[in-house]
TrEMBL record:
Gene: prfH
PROSITE patterns per UniProt: RF_PROK_I
Residue span, Prokaryotic-type class I peptide chain release factors domain: 119-135
Taxonomic path: Bacteria, Pseudomonadati, Bacteroidota, Flavobacteriia, Flavobacteriales
Gene3D superfamilies: 3.30.160.20, 3.30.70.1660
Protein's name according to its UniProt entry: Peptide chain release factor H
Family as reported in the entry's similarity comment: Belongs to the prokaryotic/mitochondrial release factor family.
Top-level taxon of origin: Bacteria
C-alpha cells in the first residue's frame, strides 16, 4: 500500500482562488472515497473569507494511488464570476495541486524505543516513591524523548510513555512536513495558468470535459504526405 502526501494551494491568489481550493477539496475527497482510498488531513489553512481554504495538505493511502493522481496533479482552473466581487472582470482562476515528496510519515516501531528507569520525584524534590518507578522513553531513530512518572507502577508508566512518545514522534514528523511545505513556497508562487489538468465552471462547479479531436492533425499529415510524393 502506497502513501502519498498532497498539497492543494491557492498560492498567493485572492479569496476567489481560496474558494476554488475549498470546492476542489470537496470533489477530491469524494473521489478518494469512491476509489477506495483512505486519507487524513494533515494541515488546513483557512482563507480570509468564510468557507475558503488557503491551502490543505492531505495524506493518501491505497494501491494504484499513482494512477489516480495523474488526473489531479497540476494546475486546476475555474471559469466563473467572482463569488466575492460580482463586478470583477476576471473570469479565470487558478490553483495548484502538488505532491509533497521530501517528507513522509513513518510508523513508530516499539522495538526502536529504549527505556530508562528513574526515581520519581514530587514538587520541591520530595520523593514520591523510593523505587525507580519513573520511565524515560527514547525513540532511537529520531532522538525524541518523554519522561513519565504518573503512576507508582513502572509497567504502567512504560505503557503511558509509549503512547506519549508515539504522539510526540508523530507531531515531530508533521512539523517536518510543515517545514518542507514552507520550503516549497515556489509551489505557492508558481501556479501556472496554462494547460490545466482539470477545468471547472460556474457556481455549481461543473467539470469541463476536453474533447480530443484529431481531424486537423490527420489533414495536416495528408497534406505533408502529398507534398512528399511530389518530390
Amino acid at each position: 500500500m502506497k502513501t502519498k502526501i498532497i498539497q492543494i494551494t491557492a498560492g498567493r491568489g485572492p479569496a476567489e482562488c481560496c474558494w476554488v481550493v475549498a470546492q476542489v477539496l470537496k470533489l477530491f475527497l469524494e473521489e478518494i472515497k469512491n476509489s477506495g482510498f483512505t486519507y487524513s488531513i494533515l494541515q488546513r489553512d483557512t482563507g480570509s473569507e468564510n468557507g475558503t481554504v488557503q491551502s490543505v495538505t492531505i495524506q493518501l493511502k491505497g494501491k494504484e494511488i499513482d494512477s489516480f493522481l495523474t488526473s489531479w496533479l497540476g494546475t486546476i482552473q475555474w471559469i466563473g464570476t467572482s463569488t466575492f466581487r460580482k463586478h470583477h472582470k476576471r473570469k479565470n482562476w487558478f490553483i495548484g495541486m502538488y505532491e509533497v515528496k521530501q517528507t513522509q510519515l513513518i510508523a513508530l516501531k516499539e522495538k526502536d524505543i529504549s527505556f530508562q528507569a528513574m526515581r520519581s520525584s514530587g514538587p520541591g524534590g520530595q520523593n514520591v516513591n523510593k523505587v525507580n518507578s519513573a520511565v524515560r522513553a527514547t525513540y532511537n531513530p529520531t532522538g525524541d524523548q518523554v519522561v513519565v512518572m504518573d503512576s507508582r507502577s513502572q509497567h504502567q508508566n512504560k505503557k503511558i510513555a509509549i503512547e506519549r512518545l508515539k504522539e510526540k514522534v508523530h507531531q515531530s514528523q508533521l512539523d517536518n512536513i510543515k517545514k518542507s511545505l514552507s520550503d516549497q513556497w515556489e509551489n505557492h508562487l508558481g501556479v501556472q495558468r496554462g494547460n490545466p489538468i482539470r477545468t471547472f465552471k460556474g457556481t455549481d462547479f461543473k467539470k469541463i470535459y476536453k474533447k480530443q479531436s484529431y481531424a486537423s492533425d490527420r489533414q495536416k499529415l495528408k497534406k505533408d504526405l502529398r507534398n512528399d510524393l511530389k518530390y
